[in-house]
Write a structure and sequence with these properties.
This protein has about 350 residues and is α+β, with helices and mostly antiparallel strands. About 65% of the residues lie in helices and about 10% in strands. It is built from eleven helices and seven strands. The strands form two sheets. The protein has a five-stranded mixed beta sheet with strand order 2-3-1-6-7, sandwiched between helices. A two-stranded antiparallel ribbon has the order 4-5. Helix 4 (about 120-130) packs parallel to helix 6 (about 160-200). The protein is elongated and about 90 Å long. The two termini are about 55 Å apart.
Length: about 350
């Protein structure tokens, strides 16, 4: 009998450093936001219930109201300390688990109103920003179960009547709105930061390989709707391996940053510059054949004239080879378009380097 190779997915792929940092910051700030607003709400409730009376001594009321915020403070402090110091695994499932436990602590303090049920949707908000349909569906079921459970638990307890009940409901609802609005702003801020980090080259601050192809696909789609000039260039630093071998990688990084600076200077409104990888840089241009060559020659000359000193005072200059491709509707994919520019770059290298070739 033949054997089957079974592959069991035990855990999701580990997060990159940037993804871990963003999730850590989202969760850390979320816990402190909830704690801060919950503490303010419960102190308000303490003053209100103390004035109304009929809920036991002030010590009993204070004990009921202050217990959950203090417990949440301990949970938040433990999380910040352990995860920040030891960088424990922190994928989306763990974030949702910690958020759910936090919400359970929050609704546990709500013995006088139904309004804090709304807090159960907070983990769903995080799921919406993640964009995982499976996690959102799962979290919706969990949140609904928490809301139903909270309703019946509170319903079994005695609820204030009349005006007191209305004031408690309004204050609790205001708490929900403040927390959710603050968390949405916070999560949005960090997800935008993550998008920027994942689409930007950390060394040169240019767009990276993924961003380049995303932009190229977008512009090719626009071209199919409304044709216009479109071309790409690829630049490669000549003999870059010798630079690293002779002066070290730190100096090599300095050379890469110098070329990146020139690409930034030469990037106009209709250009998109990226570090394609290694010592290769790329640019998408809404330019025809002649204008694309002009732009490429400007970049080549600018870099050739650039003096990059070493730490010991030695002054060096370097050259680049550039390949250009002008878009042809026959190119079905962005990869085919890029391959044409890559072929032109290969021809520039084979022809003696420090030159521009076009396909």
């Amino acid at each position: 009998m033949g054997t089957k190779n079974w592959k069991l997915k035990i855990a999701p792929a580990p997060l990159s450093t940037e993804e871990w940092d963003v999730r850590y910051d989202i969760l850390r700030h979320s816990l402190w936001i909830i704690f801060r607003y919950l503490l303010l709400l419960n102190m308000l409730w303490f003053l209100m219930l103390l004035k109304v009376g009929g809920y036991g001594s002030w010590q009993e009321v204070l004990g009921k109201i202050i217990f959950t915020p203090m417990l949440l403070f301990g949970v938040a402090g433990t999380f910040v300390t352990c995860y920040g110091r030891f960088r424990l695994p922190l994928n989306d499932h763990i974030v949702l688990l910690i958020l759910n436990l936090t919400i359970l602590l929050v609704v546990a303090t709500d013995r006088w109103t139904y309004s804090l049920q709304v807090m159960c949707i907070v983990p769903i908000i995080f799921g919406l920003f993640i964009g995982s349909e499976r996690l959102i569906f799962f979290q919706a079921v969990v949140s609904m179960a928490m809301m139903i459970g909270h309703y019946f638990i509170v319903d079994l307890d005695s609820l204030p009547k009349g005006r007191n009940r209305i004031v408690l409901d309004i204050s609790g609802l205001a708490f929900d709105i403040l927390v959710i609005a603050h968390l949405i702003v916070q999560i949005r801020k960090y997800t935008q930061m993550l998008d920027t980090q994942t689409m930007t080259d950390s060394l040169t601050r240019l767009h990276n390989h993924e961003a380049f192809y995303e932009e190229l696909n977008r512009r090719m789609e626009e071209y199919r709707v409304q044709p216009g000039p479109l071309s790409i260039l690829i630049a490669d630093i000549d003999n870059f391996k010798k630079v690293n071998d002779t002066y070290g990688h730190a100096y090599g990084d300095r050379v890469l940053k110098a070329l990146a600076g020139i690409f930034l200077e030469e990037t106009g409104k209709k250009c998109f510059a990226a570090r394609y990888g290694g010592e290769e840089f790329a640019m998408i241009m809404e330019r025809d054949r002649i204008d694309a060559i002009t732009k490429a020659e400007s970049i080549r000359r600018h870099f050739e004239q650039k003096i990059i000193p070493t730490d010991s005072g030695i002054e060096n200059s370097f050259t680049i080879s550039i390949g250009i491709a002008v878009y042809n509707p026959q190119y079905e994919t962005s990869s085919q378009f890029f391959e044409m520019a890559d072929e032109a770059l290969y021809h520039a290298k084979a022809s003696g380097k420090n030159r521009v070739c076009i396909k």
